[in-house]
Amino acid sequence: MTVSVEDRADDQKQLTAENNVVIKNIYYMMAYAFKALQLNDYRRLTTEDFDHIDDLLAAILAIAIGTQRRRGFEREYLPVHENLHTVRGRIDVSSTARLQMTGYNGLACVYDEFSEDTYKNRVLKTTALLLIGRKDVNTARKADLKRCLIAMRDVGEVDIHRVDWARLRFHRNNASYLLLMNVCQMVIERELFNQDEGNRSLQYRSKRKLSQLYEKFVLEYYRVHHPDISASAKTINRQAQGNTELLPGLLTDVTLRKGKRELIIDAKCYGHILDVYYDKPIYAPKHINQIQSYVLHEAFGNDKLVDGMLLYAKVGNEGDHDETWSELGHRFSVRTLDLDRDFAAIAADLDDIAARWLEESEAKSEGAILLTSR
Predict the structure, then answer these.
(1) Cα(36)–Cα(333) distance, integer angstroms
(2) Contact assessment for residue 243 and residue 297, using Cβ atoms and an 8 Å cutoff
(3) Cβ–Cβ under 8 Å, residues 304 and 260
(4) Rg of the chain over CA atoms, in angstroms?
(5) How far apart are CA 131 and CA 50, in angstroms?
(6) DSSP, res 322
(7) 63-67, 271-275, 342-346: lowest mean pLDDT where?
(8) Predicted confidence band of residue 71 (pLDDT cuts 50, 70, 90)
(9) Do residues 239 and 300 lie in contact, with contact meaning Cβ atoms separated by under 8 Å?
């Protein structure tokens, strides 16, 4: 297989949201992915215009911090070390001994204090300060962020080069921070990339973040608007024997299920749709092999009607694709979702995918029943 020099050069370019996606659609994707649709506070964003992704993220963050302030910022019991003349909490014996050696007639105490100075709030404040310093953020939104920070005056900051995203934990009581922290991660990683444009690992994380957002958006869209269809990110059992420890897992981005019919969607938001083989354009073999593996493993040993789709976010100058073929008794398709349009058109395409799948799989199911009866 050969790939053109131009394709290789294009693959080295960072997939930036402002070049490939209408800015406002980032909001819609985040709203679905993080279940913020039901919040009236965010709805005014649909009527505003944004010229840059930073401006949109600043608007989301300003609204989110204000909403969180009214709900109450997250608080945790944090350890406080203080030198006192009376006991509070527990005595730190070794520290007290060192104090007394210096002539201080007191006690080193450690106690817990219920504080808003949590790690998530520090990340939140640091991100707001970054956006205030960005030239692409509207002056009015900078003022909104500054007003929000007044309520966070007792919260510290973090070093953006050492943010431990794996440290963040979410549960029922702080679920509202999920959208906030994802906005923060997008802002901070963009800042790091701007500081060191040669860092390929940062570029890769930026791509992966947008890709994960796209996958989650497609999944949640079907959950919200097609309740008659079961939509999930399903793990498929690999039909393999022997030493399988090093084999990759089969985790689908989106699986639509109705009865015994399933459509497995692999959502792709970066990478090329086409490769070149002896000067002939072909669909990327690794993507075709991936969706085929999902479908064949899911259908093995049962009577499910399983189809597969590669759903690409259209980027750059690559054309529209809407191709379907049958292979090994299964229907496969490649389709592009052009995000550079009004969101209503994007929603209509997602609805069409579900409608066509149900119609085609129903016809296939009826044909199978007819053959069986004969």
Answers:
(1) 31
(2) no
(3) yes
(4) 26
(5) 15
(6) E
(7) 271-275
(8) confident
(9) yes
Provide the mean pLDDT of the chain.
84
Q: What value, to the nearest 5°, has the Cα angle with vertex 74 and ends 73 and 79?
A: 125
Side-chain-side CA neighbours of 313 within 13 Å: the count stands at: 29
> Who contacts 17 (Cβ-Cβ below 8 Å, separation ≥6)?
23, 26, 53, 210
Where does residue 360 rank: exposed (0-12), middle (13-18), buried (19+ CB within 10 A)?
Answer: middle
Distance CA 253, CA 235 (A): 9
pTM for this structure? 0.79
User: Contact at 8 Å (CB) between 184 and 125?
Assistant: no
Rounded Cα gap, residues 183 and 185, in angstroms = 5
pLDDT score recorded for residue 17: 43
DSSP H or E segment with residue 208: helix 200-225
- Give the number of other Cβ atoms within 10 Å of residue 96's Cβ: 16
Closest CA to 164 of 188, 147, 200: 188
Helices marked H in 105-150 — which ranges? 119-132, 139-150
3-state SS track over 46-91: HHCCCCCHHHHHHHHHHHHHHHHHHHCCCCEEEEEEEEECCCCCEE
Distance CA 290, CA 254 (A): 14
Structure tokens at 166: 């794996």
Report yes or no: 60 and 30 within 8 Å, Cβ to Cβ: yes
Q: Which of 14-23, 62-71, 150-159 has the highest mean pLDDT?
A: 150-159
Geometric angle at alpha carbon 190, from 152 and 197, rounded to 5°: 140
176 compared with 292, residue with greater pLDDT = 292
In angstroms, the CA 160 to CA 189 distance is 9
Strand ranges in 211-294 using DSSP code E only, listed in sequence order: 230-232, 235-236, 250-251, 254-258, 261-268, 274-277, 280-283
CA distance 348 to 337: 10
Question: How far apart are the two ends of the chain, measured CA to CA in Å?
Answer: 46
Positive or negative torsion for Cα 224, 349, 51, 126: positive
Q: Where do we find the tokens 């399933």? A: 262
Q: Is the dihedral of CA 150, 152, 156, 162 positive or negative?
A: negative
